[in-house]
Design a protein that fits this description.
alpha/beta; TIM Barrel; eight-stranded parallel beta sheet; 10 helices; 15% strand; binds 1,3-dihydroxyacetonephosphate
Amino acid sequence: MPRTIVAANWKMHKTAADTTAFLDVLLAELEQTPPHVDVMIAPPFTALAAASARLAGSRVLLGAQTMHWELEGPYTGEISAPMLEEFGVTWVILGHSERRAACGETDRTVNLRLHAALAQHLLPVVAVGETAAERAAGAAGERVVQQTRAALDGIPNESLQRIALAYEPVWAIGTGNNCDPDEADRMMHLIRNAVPGLQETPILYGGSMKAANVADYTAKPNINGGLIGGASLDPRGFADLIRRA
Ligand code: 13P
């Protein structure tokens, strides 16, 4: 069984000061919580230093929301793996649909980022998911299998244990319209079988997950946790979600 992971993707939310205040509450809440899940928080780059300082010695892991595949170079506004690792980042989200749609990430550059993250000993969470139009056209399964295969192209079998995948249907993100857990499990079964060797790889669900529905997902055989946006922004609500996962 892959381990359970609950990961917060804060997107463009929270300053450094907000981050410290959030973590003060979250860490106090988690002291009473048995460590049955791995917890990861991905704040904006500008809050990594504050998060890293507050998380030192805690069980909460620090992630970033994306990274470039080169180590350095003429890439204005981009950030590389060594720059993230300097702040204690151990996880990185790759291929989020918002970055695919608005920031030019493609199947090919997600693959480049994944190779680079693994080479730099970061633990990647690779996000895939179909749009509403792809689902309406009956192409949802085909789309996520294709995205998964493209992302994992050339990744050696032994590295698949160091990766997590996330199924995030684009139409479910930030809409309150979460994917039915049985349907998410069916899609995640397709993802798990997209290439050989993913049986022990955690696959997270993302898309309007909250404390009230998280257990409906983690009860399913192919769902090993969540990648949470909106419901990760309040520390007490997020702690409640973690306890129910
Ligand atoms: P919401 O939880 O706000 O739907 O966002 C999900 C997501 O995009 C996490 O990466």
